[in-house]
């Protein structure tokens, strides 16, 4: 018999009890994913209310004095991560301790400077999250297919490393080894600076005229999606990874100054080339981003108009299946007040023409494609 909401457990790579300190989005999501594998998960949190909520949602059970965890996952805010790691190492001398903070070098240095024995500590970071935090937003599938960075050093024991990698694999993530320095430089570019840029751009919308906001389309929505993140958390993250973030922001500021100078006099010699090069370099960067299954393969897009009535999206997918067209990606947009939505569907280049012709023959309206 299985517990409600957890389904039949499949075999776990992690054996023994896993203690999770911090029952917010990441901690509770790890708990849900491990419990679905049949792992005994105990939760601890400085907030009794947050802890009770996570337990009520099924992320784990309350910790007890009789617990002897094999693995401890510290999932607390960055400004207290080092303190909690030190406390857990001292309290459970036989357990391996990892953390999921989005910055790796600062807590490692802080612990090392305190003289803490870090033999049983392995920093890690799952590259996953949502705009909304807390136990109520936790999901067992949050980490599926996402990278999980593991930061080992020369003192790391093979068995301990295997245990942390087993944790990542159990929740559906892909373990990836990096040094703390490599990790922090990487997330500065791929996560921390994008957050700053998205927030600054979204801030320009706060005082925009209502008429301008009615024109908002996928461009502004895509580039500001993460701007809904919690300021309190990001103050800590950016402060802990300030140096690499500043390096990238300074370079970005110089790029913006060059484009701004060119647009002040678009007819001046070289101005149009400056703007074109900026856009072209952006094309080159986007092409390097891994796509589906980690491949750099590019897909074609078609935009289908979908009536805002029940069952229409399901019918669209069903008919694409009948046409033997595999949907590689999907993005939905619904303009306020419109009686239809736009489904932007990514397909293999060889399938684009057949998808368009097949859907049109079945009465679907194609609003655009990369063939246009």
TrEMBL record:
GO MF, any single term: prephenate dehydrogenase (NAD+) activity
ATP-binding among keywords: no
This enzyme's EC code(s): 1.3.1.12
Protein's GO biological process: tyrosine biosynthetic process
Keywords from the named record: Amino-acid biosynthesis, Aromatic amino acid biosynthesis, Oxidoreductase
Pathway: Amino-acid biosynthesis
Family annotation (InterPro entries): 6-PGluconate_DH-like_C_sf, ACT-like_dom_sf, NAD(P)-bd_dom_sf, PDH_C, PDH_N, Preph/Arog_dehydrog, Prephen_DH
Domain Prephenate/arogenate dehydrogenase: 16-293
EC category name: oxidoreductase
Pfam families assigned to the protein according to its UniProt record, in alphabetical order: PDH_C, PDH_N
Entry superkingdom: Bacteria
Family: Belongs to the prephenate/arogenate dehydrogenase family.
UniProt name for this protein: Prephenate dehydrogenase
UniProt organism field: Microbacterium bovistercoris
Species classification: Bacteria, Bacillati, Actinomycetota, Actinomycetes, Micrococcales
């Amino acid at each position: 018999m299985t517990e409600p909401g957890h389904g039949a457990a499949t075999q776990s790579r992690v054996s023994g009890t896993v203690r999770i300190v911090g029952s917010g989005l990441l901690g509770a999501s790890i708990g849900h994913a491990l419990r679905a594998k049949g792992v005994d998960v105990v939760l601890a949190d400085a907030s009794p209310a947050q802890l009770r909520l996570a337990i009520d949602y099924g992320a784990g059970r309350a910790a007890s004095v009789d617990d002897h965890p094999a693995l401890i996952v510290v999932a607390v805010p960055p400004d207290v991560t080092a303190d909690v790691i030190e406390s857990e190492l001292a309290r459970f001398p036989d357990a391996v301790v990892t953390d999921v903070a989005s910055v790796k070098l600062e807590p490692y240095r802080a612990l090392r400077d305190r003289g803490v024995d870090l033999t049983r500590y392995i920093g890690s970071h799952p590259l996953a999250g949502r705009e909304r935090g807390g136990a109520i937003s936790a999901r067992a599938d949050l980490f599926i297919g996402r990278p999980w960075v593991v930061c080992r050093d020369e003192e790391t024991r093979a068995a301990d490393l295997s245990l942390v990698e087993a944790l990542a694999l159990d929740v559906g993530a892909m373990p990836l080894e990096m040094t703390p320095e490599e990790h922090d430089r990487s997330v500065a570019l791929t996560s921390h600076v994008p957050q700053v840029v998205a927030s600054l751009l979204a801030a320009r919308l706060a005082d925009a005229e209502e008429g301008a906001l009615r024109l908002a389309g996928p461009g502004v929505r895509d580039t500001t999606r993460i701007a809904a993140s919690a300021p309190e958390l990001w103050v800590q993250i950016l402060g802990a990874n300030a140096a690499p973030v500043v390096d990238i922001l300074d370079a970005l500021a110089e790029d913006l100054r060059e484009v701004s100078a060119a647009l002040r006099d678009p007819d001046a010699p070289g101005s149009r080339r400056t703007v074109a090069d900026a856009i072209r370099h952006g094309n080159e960067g986007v092409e390097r981003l891994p796509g589906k299954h980690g491949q750099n393969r590019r897909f074609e897009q078609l935009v289908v108009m979908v009536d805002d009535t029940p069952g229409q999206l399901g019918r669209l997918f069903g008919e694409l299946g009948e046409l033997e067209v595999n949907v590689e990606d999907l993005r939905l947009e619904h303009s306020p007040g419109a009686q239809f939505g736009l489904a932007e569907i990514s397909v293999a280049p060889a399938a684009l023409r057949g998808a368009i012709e097949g859907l049109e023959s079945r009465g679907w309206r194609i609003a655009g494609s990369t063939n246009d």
